[in-house]
């Protein structure tokens, strides 16, 4: 999956330069986020001053701030759109590299059960999920690098936290602690989900396989058998839904309560008038940016589980090709290697079930 795109001479001009360009675009978007964070601080301080009784803030000054934001937002929109557009093309080239490799070795791979689905569906899903999860991970890392120093600097006026008392670098410590608690806690709550998802794939595969056999043989895919297999699918899905229900309850409770965490921490400073409205806004914004970066696993858990599943299937597909192309070391009279014997057994069994005669594993 990786060597086909990142190590093949025909794709080197797309893989590595493209990754650098995507990284540069993401970094510039994070830089604009930092600029917007600073703008919000100045703007809210201006609004606070404008709302006071002895205000000398003119309308032109407020319009000027809004125009400045429009300029920043306009640049952000252009960079974000072009970055997403290029990333889609880049991930499609990755899919094309995998597709070309599989088509080139189709004679060896076509005997693998579900080979057509691996080449068409799994490469498509892999490209889409790498695009989404990879971009999110890259942005999370760069946001963490950019905003953690900002949060450290802005949190200097915050000397203590409610209940806990005085803590050095209070907001930084609070952000990291809150994110780690959420990640570990939700990982424990959802620890059964990967296994249930794998079991779900097994019953789906059994149901689909019986229907495929029924296309060629009249004695397969009988109503009673199909009903039993679909009942297993139904039971598996209902179990997954139930487990996702309490996982989602824990996840959304954690995320929603996290909205007020920075405000709770800033209550003493606000009550004593130690920070301005603009400083508070910048602190909350920086806290949220760092928190979201550290919550990457929490916010992308479902997609990560699915990506791991697709990766394992494509990886096994590649290993099958490596095994088929490896030189035979079995001497006459010796048993074949366990891996080769396993593949032959699958191929012969599938041919017999489809109504054909026993055939060798290679065309």
TrEMBL record:
Transmembrane segments: 12-30, 62-86, 126-150, 170-189
Entry GO terms, CC: plasma membrane
GO molecular function, one term: ATP binding
SUPFAM superfamilies: ABC transporter transmembrane region
Keywords, in A-Z order: Membrane, Transmembrane, Transmembrane helix, Transport
Pfam families: SbmA_BacA (PF05992)
InterPro entries recorded: ABC1_TM_sf, ABC_transporter_sub-D, SbmA_BacA
Coiled coil: none
GO biological process, one term: peptide transport
UniProt superkingdom: Eukaryota
The keyword Cell membrane appears for this protein: no
Protein's recorded name: BacA protein
Organism annotation: Symbiodinium natans
Gene name for this UniProt entry: bacA
